[in-house]
C-alpha cells in the first residue's frame, strides 16, 4: 500500500481509478483526478499549500512535487496545479507552479515557483524553468534557463494526449495486479 498520510488533519483526496505506487508518498492537501497515476518513488507533499493534479495525468518515477507557503510578500504562496492529460517524466521537480493541459515535461526538468505553463507545451529533458516565467501555448522550451525554442508541430500537439493516454492504459494493467487506493 502507498504511503498516504494526512497533515494537520487534511487527507489526500482521490478521483476514480487512480493508481498510486506502493513506493510513493502522498501527504496532506493533495487532490488527484480520475485515471491519473503516481509511479514509484514520487513524493507529493501538500503540507504548506495545496497540490491539485487533473485527470489522466501521470507523475513518473522519482519526481518531487511541493509547494510554497503563504508569506507577507506572497499572501497565497504558491500551490502546485497540474492540469489534465499531463505527462511528467522521470525525476522531475515541480515546485509551486501551474501547468495547464496537454503538457509533456521531459525527464529531470525543474519548474520553479510562480511559473505558469499554458496548454500544449513540451518542456525538454533537463530544462530549468526559472521562477515567475510564463511558457506560451504551442511551443517547445529547452535549456537552463529554459527558452522558447520553436513552435510545436501538429504531430507533436496530437501526441500530447496520446502520451497521457499511454499511461492511463499502463496504470489499468497495474490496477489489475494490485489493490487500488480508491
TrEMBL record:
This is Carbonic anhydrase. Pfam families: Hexapep (PF00132). Gene3D superfamilies: Hexapeptide repeat proteins.
Amino acid at each position: 500500500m502507498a504511503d498516504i498520510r494526512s497533515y494537520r488533519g487534511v487527507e489526500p483526496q482521490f478521483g476514480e481509478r487512480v493508481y498510486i505506487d506502493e513506493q510513493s508518498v502522498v501527504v496532506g492537501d493533495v487532490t488527484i483526478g480520475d485515471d491519473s497515476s503516481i509511479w514509484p518513488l514520487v513524493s507529493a507533499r501538500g503540507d504548506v499549500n495545496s497540490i491539485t493534479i487533473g485527470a489522466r495525468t501521470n507523475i513518473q518515477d522519482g519526481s518531487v512535487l511541493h509547494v510554497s507557503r503563504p508569506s507577507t510578500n506572497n499572501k497565497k504562496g504558491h500551490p502546485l496545479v497540474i492540469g489534465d492529460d499531463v505527462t511528467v517524466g522521470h525525476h522531475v521537480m515541480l515546485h509551486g507552479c501551474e501547468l495547464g493541459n496537454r503538457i509533456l515535461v521531459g525527464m529531470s526538468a525543474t519548474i520553479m515557483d510562480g511559473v505558469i505553463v499554458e496548454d500544449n507545451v513540451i518542456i525538454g529533458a533537463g530544462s530549468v524553468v526559472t521562477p515567475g516565467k510564463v511558457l506560451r501555448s504551442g511551443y517547445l522550451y529547452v535549456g537552463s534557463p529554459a527558452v522558447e525554442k520553436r513552435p510545436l508541430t501538429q504531430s507533436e500537439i496530437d501526441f500530447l494526449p496520446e502520451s497521457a493516454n499511454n499511461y492511463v492504459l499502463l496504470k489499468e494493467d497495474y490496477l489489475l495486479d494490485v489493490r487500488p487506493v480508491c
